[in-house]
Amino acid sequence: MKIAVLREQADGEKRVSATPETVRKLISLGADVAVEAGSGFAASFADQGYAEAGAQVADRAATLAGAGIVLGVQGPDPASLAGAAPGAWVVASLNPFGARDRVEGYAAAGLEALAMDLMPRITRAQSMDILSSQSNLSGYKAVLDAAAEYGRAFPMMMTAAGTVSAARVFVMGVGVAGLQAIATARRLGAQVSATDVRSATREQIQSLGAKPIFVDSVAGIEGEGTGGYAGETSPEYQAAQAELVSGHIAKQDIVITTALIPGRPAPRLITDGQVATMRPGSVIVDLAVEQGGNVEGAVAGEVVERHGVRIVGHRNVPSRLAADASALYARNLFNFLSAFWDKEQGRPVLDAEIGDAIRLTQGGKIVNPRLL
Ligand code: NAD
């Protein structure tokens, strides 16, 4: 089985889907690995490292020729995959609800597209979960991005010239990214509070030494929510949340929003009027900006200023930590392929629980029930 590692084509994408470490491991499973020249360059992995790990480093056509599995970070353009074996797997973060045309392209090309971003949140798939590995780094980077825009310090400092007070940081949405944002802001010495619609996060917030800010008058989502994810809340809950947040936000220096609802636009959590209540010089980082944004006025790919408040909307935050993001992403892909590797057939064979969840196309058709 030949595995092809492609150089990412999307603007600003610095990550790579395999590292020399995972190439070596894939080869030890019995695979042949080809890496498109320059694939790891932006993530600090040189071609030489891949060659030393045993990969063939080649141009795109030679990399793809006869490959049965094609690895990517973002979904490659179906038109650019000519030469791969018939029915080859395309294993990447395929954004199936946002990039339907591309999914149709994989079907038309007879490829089997496997969306790693639809990996079910079950215990045995944790090591294959690209959303978690990338969100964790995003949460960390969001705090550093906020600190870089903020004209003050995070920790309290008592100096001979006087005292600098600790920054107040509020994290909205306490999933994987939010938890890491809380932990990172705490490590930098900030006073941290956080909120979520899922009641199960209250204890997690407390265990990281932050203060939970919760709507108690109306029920949100009791416990974990389906598959660990949030759903949409009632209009009553949204009104109570808006009121609670309004009072709290005006006293914050930094707000980090991470709230997402799978398959839906991100919930709007902060209005322009609420931004106006914050002190000039405050910073908001909207990690959901590419899914529609939690913050009114946030612009994807830009840092904008509204009412003296900087609203940070970087795209593709994991790519801003390309070396670590690639290392973890590549291990997720290796863990996936190796968990299903069938030694006799010399290729991975999926089971129904995971296969049916992530398979988008097969035999020339879209087959995933969530896309039908
Ligand atoms: P996510 O990226 O889908 O959403 C981020 C957070 O935003 C979630 O905590 C969500 O509840 C919250 N949110 C949604 N709407 C909101 C609103 N209106 N106001 C405030 N917050 C709102 O979430 P995620 O990071 O993917 O994690 C979701 C859960 O799944 C977590 O509990 C995580 O621990 C769990 N998880 C489980 C596994 C596993 O078992 N394999 C793997 C990863 C994550």
How would you characterize this protein structure?
- With 372 residues, this protein is α/β, with parallel strands linked by helices.
- It has two domains: 149 residues, NAD(P)-binding Rossmann-like Domain (Rossmann fold), CATH 3.40.50.720; 184 residues, NAD(P)-binding Rossmann-like Domain (Rossmann fold, 3-Layer(aba) Sandwich), CATH 3.40.50.
- The chain is 31% helix and 19% strand.
- The strands form five sheets. The protein has a seven-stranded mixed sheet.
- Strand 7 and strand 8 form a beta hairpin.
- Helix 1 packs parallel to helix 2 and helix 5 packs parallel to helix 6.
- The relative contact order is 0.15.
- The structure holds nicotinamide-adenine-dinucleotide.
- The site of nicotinamide-adenine-dinucleotide has 31 residues, from helix 5 and helix 6.
> What is the helix fraction of residues, given as a range?
25-40%
Uncertain stretches of 5 or more adjacent residues: none
The topology string of helices and strands comes to: EHEHEHEEHEHEEEHEHEHEHEEEHEEHEE
Largest sheet: 7 strands, mixed
Number of domains: 2
Structural class: alpha/beta
Strand order in the largest sheet = 11-10-9-12-13-15-14
Strand content: 15-25%
CATH architecture of the largest domain: 3-Layer(aba) Sandwich
Cα shape: globular
CATH class placement of the largest domain: Alpha Beta
InterPro entries: Ala_DH/PNT_CS2, AlaDH/PNT_N, AlaDH/PNT_NAD(H)-bd, NAD(P)-bd_dom_sf
Organism: Sphingomonas aerophila
GO molecular function, one term: oxidoreductase activity
Domain Alanine dehydrogenase/pyridine nucleotide transhydrogenase NAD(H)-binding: 147-313
